[in-house]
Design brief:
The complex is a heterodimer. Chain A is mainly α. Chain A is built from twelve helices and no strands. Chain B has helices at residues 14-24, 63-72, 76-85, 92-104, 108-115, 123-136, 140-147, 155-169, 172-179, 190-205, 210-219, 223-227, 231-255, 260-311. Chain B is elongated and about 90 Å long. Classes of the chains: A mainly alpha, B mainly alpha.
């Protein structure tokens, strides 16, 4: 390692260590950013960016940490650090809910540590998790309350009662020869109860189910690791 | 026609407003654009007392450029951290940078506080940034007061801010007086000046009368809402009242006027008919509020855009 680089790294870390207020990870992250502002070379900039990303992950500022890692000069990064960087990148993507990108980064290689193995298990679980299908939920929504049951959504009872009540009004009116009441009244009621309340609402309810259940599943899995 | 309409008029009150609420929020009613309140500014996390003047401190000096660089790259949280924990000596530069960082982070109350403390060479940029923060905080009269005795080098920018405020306040004579100072020759201001001028023209055409809306809906249900710019709820009202009227007529014909089915359908029809008239009257106040919010957003955009060219 070049003497200039040693001097630079030592001066940066001494300045951070002896700064009266440098204890906060947030301020440390800013001081590492300052190194780039002062025109550090590619290798020093990489060290500063990785340190900054570590501070930001400590603060759970995943998007900012991910941005810092995206700014790394890969050509100047030592190959031995690549796996560490991959782990950090995948961690940020995973915490941001971008599981596909996390899996793609993981495929490039992870370090052989317990933490990295745990993250790998979580990413694989997230990617392979199968949620509720929006199309299937819409089809089931045609016959309330099956759509609600499939997506475990609230409001199944009032929607079902309202829908079949509307059908009953429609049938009763049609049988008694009140065609205007049957067609217009029944049509308007069914558009609100059956179409809007059950069929049209299902894709959104499926998305809500998927978000909620995947988060619960990963939380339980993470607690068990 | 100017009419005092309570701001809470759109809340559900009574059976007529309930019927209007149902039609407005029905499947067809939703086809129109929903009215949304603007997002309130974020609460301040940067209290003035957080600064400790007794601690040994240093001048912000060259760090100022670094703070501005952070802000230009959208790293607002980093800029705020540095200004909060950087242990800098109090001064105009520090107050200005704090104000600007908080302004960029949309913490307008704290930004206004710090910017109002700035004196000396940075007082002009602080005044104009502070004014935009005051507009965000619904303090237009404070802006007019701050600009009342301004005779500095940015007089055309001051005229632009005053003209924008005049539009927000509906003060036509003040707008004409201030827009007369627009030269359209300064590249930093010309686009905003044109936009504010165009906005005043479109505002003239968008005045609606709540009584006319109610009258139209009394003649043909839903037309008042369409007149107020709410096509979806208007069509929903027409369908709801029309359907109930047709059902009432059918029940009357088949079962007679005193039959319970006729009475139920007729009562519902009457409730929805009156609710539709009330809803049309309310629609104008909703539309008026929407126009006010859009005017504020456009004025804010056009008075804040030139600040970057002037001072950053």
């Amino acid at each position: 390692m070049k003497p200039r680089r040693w001097y630079f790294i030592i001066s940066v870390f001494l300045s951070v260590a002896f700064s009266a207020r440098a204890q906060s990870p947030a301020l440390k992250a800013v001081l590492y950013e300052r190194i780039l502002f002062d025109g550090a070379g590619p290798s020093e900039a990489n060290d500063a960016l990785i340190s900054r990303a570590l501070c930001l992950t400590e603060l759970a500022r995943w998007a900012d940490a991910s941005d810092a890692l995206d700014r790394l000069r890969i050509y100047a990064l030592e190959p031995s650090r690549m796996q560490e960087v991959n782990y950090l990148k995948a961690l940020c993507k995973y915490r941001l809910g971008d599981y596909a990108s996390a899996a793609a980064v993981m495929a490039e290689g992870f370090p052989d540590t317990t933490e990295a193995q745990k993250l790998g298990v979580l990413i694989n679980a997230a990617v392979s998790w199968k949620g509720r299908d929006e199309f299937v939920s819409t089809l089931l929504g045609l016959a309330p309350p099956f759509g609600h049951i499939y997506t475990k959504a609230s409001g199944a009872v009032p929607t079902t009662l309202a829908t079949y009540g509307s059908v009953a009004l429609w049938l009763a009116s049609a049988i008694s020869g009140d065609w205007v009441t049957a067609i217009l009244g029944g049509g308007l009621l069914l558009s609100e109860t059956w179409w809007r309340g059950s069929v049209q609402a299902m894709p959104q309810k499926a998305r809500e189910y998927n978000t909620r259940e995947l988060a619960n599943y990963l939380e339980k899995l993470e607690a068990g690791l | 026609m100017m009419l005092c309409i309570p701001s809470h008029a759109q809340k559900v009150r009574g059976i007529f407003s309930l019927s209007d609420y149902l039609t407005r929020n029905s499947y067809i009613g939703h086809a129109g654009r929903q009215y949304l309140k603007p997002v309130p500014p974020k609460p301040s996390s940067f209290e003035p007392q957080a600064f400790d003047p007794s601690a040994p401190a240093r001048n912000i000096g060259a760090d100022g450029d670094f703070v501005l660089d952070l802000l230009d790259r959208g790293l607002r949280e980093d800029a705020l951290t540095l200004l909060r924990e950087g242990n800098y000596a109090p001064g105009d530069s520090l107050s200005y940078l704090r104000g600007i960082a908080l302004y960029d982070d949309r913490q307008f109350q704290a930004a206004e506080h710090w910017l109002s403390m700035v004196k000396g060479p940075l007082s002009d940029p602080a005044l104009f940034y502070g004014n935009v923060a005051r507009v965000h905080l619904d303090m237009p009269f404070d802006v007019l007061k701050a600009l009342a005795h301004y005779y500095g080098p940015y007089s055309e920018l001051a005229s632009l801010q005053r003209a924008g405020l005049a539009l927000m306040l509906g003060n036509v004579s003040m707008f004409q007086e201030e827009s007369a100072h627009f030269t359209y020759s300064d590249y930093r201001l010309s686009e905003s000046e044109k936009a504010v001028k165009n906005l005043s023209e479109s505002l003239k055409k968008s005045q609606k009368s709540p009584w006319l809306a109610a009258g139209l809906s009394a003649i043909i249900p839903g037309t008042g809402k369409i007149y107020a710019g709410q096509t979806g709820p208007g069509v929903a009202s027409l369908l709801a009242v029309g359907t109930l009227a047709a059902i009432t007529a059918e029940q009357w014909k088949h079962h007679g006027a005193k039959d319970w089915r006729t009475m139920v359908a007729g009562s519902l029809c009457g409730i929805f008919y009156i609710g539709n008239i009330y809803g049309s009257w309310v629609s104008v106040s909703i539309q008026r509020q929407k126009i006010q919010d859009e005017t504020k957003a456009l004025v804010l955009y056009n008075i804040s855009i030139p600040l970057g060219s002037f001072f950053r």
